[in-house]
């Protein structure tokens, strides 16, 4: 029976677990319950990926109504791959959060933390698996509301302003997406993604559909924090509790990136978006500016969480750059980077959270001398940092390798050179932290007996990610295979949709 | 004639919106928000979308206005002067507006029967839903069955809003016994009128809840109307007496139970061998099954919406009470 309903389980498990956690309301048991649910969801997404790689597409008609009348869940290599990354990160962050939130979130709000986390996971999984444009919006709302809540749980008062800013920007983004979907519905009379794809192609240069595309792209760009719409992100990531930042930085913007890919490749078709509307050039310019502007911003911050937040915006630039190259390899590098960036940013933010747990500050001065006092945490930070830079034998290298290959395939020498130059900026901002940790003496004011290694429940998920950074950096078969078949699949469906619409219009 | 009514209503809508931008008194702005929602509801009625109009009137004009007033009780009613320059926002708004107008250029003609929205999925909803689902109100058929997964999602959105408000405000009862009694103790007229109206409002909510299959209505509207009855009670008789009727903890549990009730229908149909939320499998006769399914999930929606709306009001109310004491 489970086999048959596999596609629904990663959404439904956290979705019903969230109200149950609110009913339970006891902390230790809650932690076990939430982690177990997330782990189960992760197991099922693993199964889904395996099924998607062999069978290529799984379709599930919710309510027994066939698409386009009912809502369809549609699993292919692309969304199963991202889903696996999201649910795995969610599980690791939940394990990590037991100790972390003890320090950072008021104990009366622990139940709300777990509920909001599970809601966010359910929302993200729903966005990934659905095959219906409006259903995507509904799940986007669930995950967004849960995210604003999670950010606002911090003990620092400034997290409220950050959450409010995020709320305003996020709501504008969601509204833009809704307006865009509305315009598509007006012209096609359907909400199912594949059906939309078939019916959009019939129109040539319809101004309403063009406007719909523009609204959706701007809305999604706000959600994924594409430069210059990223202003909400650094504040939100800096002031949110560390466990929340680790989860959001590695999943939320990545899922928004997936939504962009879905709209470009499955619904509108890349021919239309890139060749007719010329979006690839816009995206490429914004991506390159994002890489340099935000990497530079990262080098001048003193709060390490802000450094990493700006670095995230820059990394999103790399993903968008991959897509803007309009090739299978380029898209593939973007998809691989979703997975890889989740591994490295998750580990980095967990390490920073561990430092906060022991030292009580994440300012760069607080990192002085930690190389000796918290050796395991700082070693994890260093390895994940090397991965961000793109050193060989780490996953960061794999992403950069495919990105540069994609650029060279199309003789974009300048782009390839800029990618490498961007890595140098990453050397600077990661290097500053490592230098402080290993080559400077701890401040005299700090009681060195107090600062010791982080608890093992924080170290274990952190090191799991670090080892994954190395493992997937050496054995790239799983990630490249999944990303390549996802990317080929996305280009294919675009072509199929275009071909079938030609038949219809003839 | 219909077009003329639309034009007048839209003009009034625009005037209300402009007025809201320029007014500094937030109390007046909230009232204008209510009027704005009522005007939109009227436009929806003119478009023959009575279900949407009903929702807009009860949610937009009704409960949102009350909740915004609750917010004003915490923040004060004067708008603070903004230190930001308004040139960039104005530019963004103008570009967005221009894009929206540009987007209308190739819009299908207004109300034309051959429009894509009338020709693709809608015919099946209109022609087949009486046979497949058997409800006279097709809006409920689409909302609760064809697109039941969306409605489950929307219910969870409402639930997520509760989690957000609880995280920010929380609902704590006063420990001290010498708390000045809130509410309008001395207003006997209010007491009598409220006592008279509250049962009627609750009765109406139940009617809307269970009549959604046949006419405009359903869980969302019913939940909001029922919450309004309890909010009226709270306003007139004070927070502590309202807590004695339905406590905040109980309400939070109720909000969860509503979502779980909805989802359990889905799981039961899975257990019966159907897809998630396939109500046809709930009984031997598919139409009867659809009926059972829709009644139960609407009840789940109603319970969650009621509990969440009242909880949010409690959160505002207890926060305001606390700040009054300090």
Describe this structure as you would to a colleague:
- The complex is a heterodimer of chains A (506) and B (326).
- Chain A is mainly alpha-helical.
- Chain A has a domain at 278-474.
- Helix content of chain A is 78%, strand content 2%.
- Chain A is built from 20 helices and 2 strands.
- Chain A has helices at 9-24, 27-55, 77-104, 110-129, 133-152, 158-188, 193-200, 207-223, 232-239, 242-268, 270-276, 279-299, 304-324, 328-359, 370-373, 375-389, 395-409, 413-439, 456-474, 477-505; strands at 58-62, 71-75.
- Chain A has a two-stranded antiparallel ribbon.
- In chain A, a hairpin with an 8-residue loop joins strand 1 (58-62) and strand 2.
- The radius of gyration of chain A is 22 Å and the shape is globular.
- The relative contact order of chain A is 0.10.
- Residues 501-506 of chain A have low confidence and may be disordered.
- Chain B is globular, with a radius of gyration of 22 Å.
- In chain B, helix 1 runs antiparallel to helix 2 (26-46), helix 7 packs across helix 13 (286-325) and helix 10 runs parallel beside helix 13 (286-325).
- Chain B has a domain at 135-326.
- Chain B is mainly α.
- Chain B starts with a helix and ends with a helix.
- Chain B has 13 helices and no strands.
- The model of chain B has no long low-confidence stretch (mean pLDDT 87).
- In chain B, 39% of the residues are buried.
- Helix content of chain B is 75%, strand content 0%.
